[in-house]
Amino acid sequence: MTIPVEIKPEVKDAINCGTPVVALETSIVAQGLPYPDNLETAFEIERTVARANATPASVAVVGGTIRVGLGEPELEFLATGKNVRKLSRADLSTAIALGETGATTVSATMICAQAAGIKVFATGGIGGVHRGAEVSFDISQDLRELAETAVIVVSSGAKAILDIPKTLEVLETLGVPVVTFGQDDFPAFWSRSSGMRSPLRLDDPETVIQAQLAREHLGLRGGMLVANPIPEFAEISIETVRYWLADALSQAKRQGVAGKAVTPFLLGAIAERSDGKSISSNKVLVSNNAKLASEIAVAYSAKLH
Ligand code: PSU
Ligand code: MN
Fold first, then answer.
1. Which atom of ligand 1 is nearest to the CA of 103?
2. What predicted TM-score, i.e. pTM, was given to this entire model?
3. Among 206, 211, 174, 169, which Cα is nearest to 186's?
4. Ranges assigned E (strand) in 105-151
5. Closest CA to ligand 1's atom 11
6. Rg of the chain taking only CA atoms, in angstroms
7. Of the bound ligands, which one is closest to the alpha carbon of residue 161?
8. Which ligand sits nearest to residue 123's alpha carbon?
9. How far is the centre of ligand 1, averaged over its atoms, from the C-alpha of 125 (Å)?
10. Tens-level pLDDT at each residue, the chain (305 residues)
11. What are phi and psi of 250, to 5 degrees?
12. Catalytic residues
């Protein structure tokens, strides 16, 4: 049996020619943002990547086939479809076997990007260790994927809905380089600083790709987390986020939300509490990450020529 991976022709050409390519996830489209913000964001990130001289490759599973590079109809389906599946590492194989359609999270997108030969990937915020994980054991598959799969993930740190100190500890245990771009503090998604210092800091895209290549030359598996702070104009203060979050967390607890549903539920509750402010900031930070990911992909491409 061969694994059905279908790469969009322009993405395939870019990979074969060694020109810059950036992978993009789709769980943010299907589960992370409401319609029509989700579809606007999907298009906007693709345009951002193209403007930065790289080829965008949104990833999903469509009818049991891994698709790397999507067209407008697929993105529209993911943005509007009811009950589109959220596919992480554990779900990919059965989705393929059953011929299902689903949106890929960070972990699944990393696997598909690596299978296609793409080294750089942009998202909003990775999954991590949830608050109360000492009781719930809820730790995202994204963390272990960073330890396994050689893809650079550009995100705005970890979502403030998570336990950020524990998330950083697990990444350290797994030996994942956590690099903040251009500042000393580790960002917290909607806020530029989490109040924690970043384990590492780098200031230019060229060094980021050099670090990943050094990792590979050492025979170390896995990728890197590049944390990119949200632009100042779109930032929401951490106090404000904490205030919204307290309500969202108690609502989740009362309703017994668990498993895959936790992240989408909390993001939705915060969007409501914030009157949509969390959504507009989310859009800005994803685009900003797509831009930095493109610059890293451009630096990588220059090394191949
Ligand atoms: N970033 C966003 N919004 C999202 C996500 C990331 O701005 O919705 C998604 C990613 O796909 C990430 C997933 O992998 O949330 C984490 O889900 P979980 O906590 O269930 O592992
Ligand atoms: Mn989880």
1. 11
2. 0.97
3. 169
4. 120-122
5. 105
6. 18
7. 1
8. 1
9. 7
10. 677 899 999 999 999 999 999 999 999 999 999 999 999 999 999 999 999 999 999 999 999 999 999 999 999 999 999 889 999 999 999 999 999 999 999 999 999 999 999 999 999 999 999 999 999 999 999 999 999 999 999 999 988 899 999 999 999 999 999 999 999 999 999 999 999 999 999 999 999 999 999 999 999 999 999 999 999 999 999 999 999 999 999 999 999 999 999 999 999 999 999 999 999 999 999 999 999 999 999 999 999 98
11. -70, -30
12. 25, 159
In angstroms, the CA 110 to CA 212 distance is 15
Whether the CB-CB separation of 90 and 130 falls below 8 Å is answered with no
Task: Report d(CA 52, CA 205) in Å as an integer.
Answer: 13
DSSP state, residue 193: E
Q: How far is the CA of 302 from the centre of ligand 1 (A)?
A: 31
Q: How far, in Å, are 64, 146, 188 from residue 165 at the CA level?
A: 37, 17, 11
Q: How far apart are CA 234 and CA 282, in angstroms?
A: 9
Query: Pocket around ligand 1: residues whose beta carbon is below 6 Å from it?
Result: 25, 27-28, 31-32, 105-106, 123-127, 140-142, 260, 263, 267, 282
Atom of ligand 1 nearest to the CA of 282: 7
> Which atom of ligand 1 lies closest to the CA of 285?
7
